[in-house]
Design brief:
single chain; 317 residues; alpha+beta; 5-stranded antiparallel β-sheet; 8 helices; 33% helix; elongated
Length: 317
């Protein structure tokens, strides 16, 4: 049989009636047709693929947000570590003398003391002593500054009084105090925030709060200290406690008025403190329950504020 005749025998039957003219399918055709997808099946497959893409994109987006927040928290943790490590070193190097001046601002956000720590020295190296005027203060740009001014032997300020036997009402001679000698550097009391000196350097940025208070020998906490001439105001203090509120740099750039953000974390009352009025506790409660802060700060920014606290025991031996 010829090839053309075999083709028409297998696939087409020719009749005289046009209505009877149809194509007969071979078994191989039906086998191949079973391997194809219907339109409904394609639409279901596309819908499943679309749902999977959305779920995977959400997982990736959530993971990237989590990693970004973790990096921000790690950056803030590094800031707090730098602040506390530097302050601890300076405090440990504080001389065991009670006749050295100590200056503390009335807002408890600045402190100046003498330490045998490192500092900048502008004079001849032969006159440089082991003493350094150290200071910490929070400026209006939410930057924590450290003053490290290395002193010469004739610049160490020992508290001196007019009376041979000073009483509790005695005041030291102004020339023996920090303000009398280094008033331009530490600023004017009681705030000590307007001093200017080239030996200041920025220790940390994004510091919303830097608060100093004290633990006394009787175990109580206070924000203010009483003078006990001829000894310094740290005579009854066993521990200096620092509480700070920090915000990462990226979040800080999204805050239009950083000073408003700082003012929302109110300091504790002046004088004696109980356990419920300590700044770390009250500030954290303000962040966890931001009823008073709603509208002033975006919630995502508020949740990134981190509160840190550390105690530094004074060396009295």
């Amino acid at each position: 049989m010829k090839l053309g005749a075999r083709f028409f025998q297998n696939h087409t039957a020719i009749t005289d009636n046009p209505r009877d003219c149809r194509i007969s399918r071979s078994p191989r055709f039906y086998q191949n047709s079973r391997r194809c997808f219907t339109l409904t099946e394609l639409m279901i497959a596309m819908a499943i693929l679309f749902i999977m893409v959305i779920l995977i994109s959400r997982i990736l987006t959530g993971g990237s947000i989590l990693i970004s927040n973790s990096k921000k928290h790690l950056g803030v943790d590094a800031k707090a570590r730098e602040i506390f490590t530097r302050f601890e070193y300076d405090i440990k190097k504080m001389p065991v003398r009670m006749d050295l001046d100590v200056a503390i601002s009335d807002k408890n956000n600045a402190i100046f003391f003498v330490s045998e720590s490192s500092g900048f020295f502008r004079g001849k190296s032969s006159k440089q002593s082991t003493a350094t005027l150290v200071g910490y203060r929070l400026n209006k740009d939410l930057e924590l500054e450290r003053l490290g001014k290395s002193l010469s032997w004739d610049q160490i300020p020992f508290l001196t009084y007019k009376e041979l036997t000073p009483s509790t009402n005695s005041t030291p001679i102004i020339q023996s105090t920090f303000f009398g000698i280094w008033g331009n550097a530490i600023g004017t009391p009681p705030e000590y925030n307007n001093g200017k000196d080239s030996d200041y350097h920025i220790l940390a940025e994004g510091v919303l709060k830097f608060f100093i208070y004290f633990k006394l020998k009787d175990g109580s906490f206070t924000t203010s200290l009483e003078s006990h001439p001829p000894q310094s105001i740290l005579n009854d203090v066993t521990t200096i406690i620092i509480t700070t509120a920090l915000l990462d740099d990226e979040s800080l750039r999204h805050v239009k008025h950083p000073s408003v953000l700082s003012s929302l974390l109110t300091p504790p009352p002046f004088g004696k403190l109980d356990v419920n009025s300590l700044p770390a506790k009250t500030w954290q409660e303000s962040i966890d329950h931001p009823v008073r802060l709603m509208g002033a700060i975006p919630p995502e920014i508020l949740s990134r504020i981190r509160i840190y606290q550390r105690s530094f025991t004074l060396n009295k031996s």
